Amino acid sequence: MSSAVNTQSKTFGVLVDIPKCIGCESCSVACKLYNDLKWDPKRKAKTARERAQEPNKGLWADDWTSINLYEPEKNGQKVLRFVKTQCFHCLEPACASACFSKAFQKLPQGPVIYDQSLCVGCRYCMLACPFDILKYEWEKAIPGVRKCQMCAQRGANFQIPACVSVCPTGALTCGERDELLAEARKRIKENGYIDHIFGEKEAGGTSWLYISDVPFDQMRFRTDVTTRPMPSYSEGYMKLTPLVGISWAAVLTGLYVYNNKWKEPLD
């Protein structure tokens, strides 16, 4: 695992070693600075424990990364664990499958990126996301959907994501996904962690992988999510969306013409 990533070969990702995170929030600051995201003093003033209890787990349109504090049990005693939350960058993303305008795309290197210029504002992507990550810019006149882009431009220049580059404890490791899985299994064995790599199979697999020494469900992870790729549930239906829209427009046009032809003035 190095500070550079060969984006021309295999899919890469990030391994999150939860026990190593100290909640310094360096990653969330780096995310904001690199992506030029707006700062909201009211939201940033909340503690990691308060953000963990929010329905959106601290993620907003301008907060793509959130560090949340949980108090799970280990060996019968409560412990403190900080968890970095952001888009998981699914291997087969439901958001991209649900987006008929192709505003979401999965890059071969790993990131799931979003192009607002192609977005029609339907928000099907938000409904499709199994992790409830995507957020909408409700306050803007021309809103878009916002989420972590996994620093795709940095990856294209053989650089690791901004958040990973500033982590002082080694809680974040970037590399090829297969190598990260091997490293995760090694750490699980060496440190006596829970025998589960979250993201290895969830939703068909994700580019962000997590290992932990306490159960994931005690830190609000979606442990009930299917291991089957999400697009396999919806792709057949979503392909019909443009057809349904065109058909409905034709029906409304027909009704308009029919209703108005009787309104012509009599001679």
Written overview of the protein:
- This protein has helices at residues 26-35, 41-44, 48-53, 94-98, 124-128, 152-156, 162-165, 177-191, 231-238, 241-260; strands at residues 12-17, 66-70, 73-74, 77-78, 81-85, 104-106, 112-114, 135-136, 145-146, 172-176, 208-211.
- It has 267 residues and is an alpha+beta fold.
- The N and C termini lie far apart (84 Å).
- The strands form five sheets. Strands 10-1-11 form a three-stranded mixed sheet. A two-stranded antiparallel ribbon has the order 2-5.
- Strand 3 (73-74) and strand 4 (77-78) form a beta hairpin.
- The protein has one domain (12-234): Alpha-Beta Plaits.
Helix content: 25-40%
CATH architecture: 2-Layer Sandwich
Strand segment tally: 11
Unreliable parts: none
What fold name stands as the CATH topology?
Alpha-Beta Plaits
Which structural class should the secondary elements be placed in? Answer: alpha+beta
**Proportion of β residues?**
5-15%
Compute the number of helices. 10
What's the pLDDT, averaged over the residues?
Answer: 88
Look at the structure and give the CATH class: Alpha Beta
Domain tally = 1
Q: List SSEs in N-to-C order.
A: EHHHEEEEHEEHEEHHEHEHH
Distance between the termini: 84 Å
For the sheet with most strands, the description reads: 3 strands, mixed
Strand arrangement within the widest β-sheet reads 10-1-11
Radius of gyration over all CA atoms, rounded: 22 Å
**Form type:** globular
